[in-house]
Design a protein that fits this description.
It contains five helices and five strands; from the N terminus they run E-E-E-E-E-H-H-H-H-H. By secondary structure, it is α+β, with helices and mostly antiparallel strands. Strand 1 and strand 2 form a beta hairpin.
Length: 176
């Protein structure tokens, strides 16, 4: 078990008491863990598993599947500022969904982890803007090597991954 910094991307109910958590980690890239007992009121994970939380996690690497047992979660930054504004939550969700689209499981991408940390930290203390959205798309396209000088970064990302997150048009129209 090796601790790693991680951002919670997605939670999925697995059973009455357990959750499947998708993380984007600094050392391992995108991984899925199973948090057994996480839905119990007195779980060791209570209050530590929410979207956009920056944590340090420990998990046992599974030899049989891509679903690893989650051992420990230490909350580092809950990104509380993001939750104070609905458009902040929408933009943070857009960033997370783009990272999810652009990455493969178990592929370390520390530069993408750093990009996501910077974006969430920015949203934690600054109102969301169209400029922030466009900058994130541009940096993601550049870092993944698909930035095309003849087209917009969003277009390059959409072509490469088959689509862009559905909320993009709404964000573009509403953000200052």
């Amino acid at each position: 078990m090796d601790p790693t910094a991680a951002i919670l991307l997605r939670k999925t109910r697995f059973s009455d008491t357990s959750l499947i958590i998708t993380w984007f980690t600094e050392k391992y890239g995108k991984i899925k863990t199973i948090a057994r007992g996480a839905r119990r009121p007195k779980s060791q994970f209570a209050g530590k598993l929410d979207l956009f939380f920056v944590t340090e996690i420990q998990f046992a690497k599974s030899r049989k599947s891509d679903l690893h047992p989650l051992q420990e979660v230490v909350l580092r930054n809950p990104q509380e500022g993001i939750r104070k504004d609905y458009q902040c939550v929408q933009l943070a969700a857009y960033f997370v969904e783009l990272i999810d689209l652009a990455t493969e499981s178990d592929h370390a991408a520390p530069e993408l982890y750093d990009l996501l940390i910077r974006a969430l930290t920015h949203l934690d203390s600054t109102p969301p803007t169209k400029r922030a959205l466009l900058h994130f798309e541009s940096e993601l396209a550049r870092l993944t090597g698909i930035l095309d000088a003849n087209s917009a970064p969003a277009s390059s990302l959409g072509q490469m991954h088959g689509r862009l997150p559905a909320g993009r048009m709404d964000l573009i129209s509403k953000l200052p």
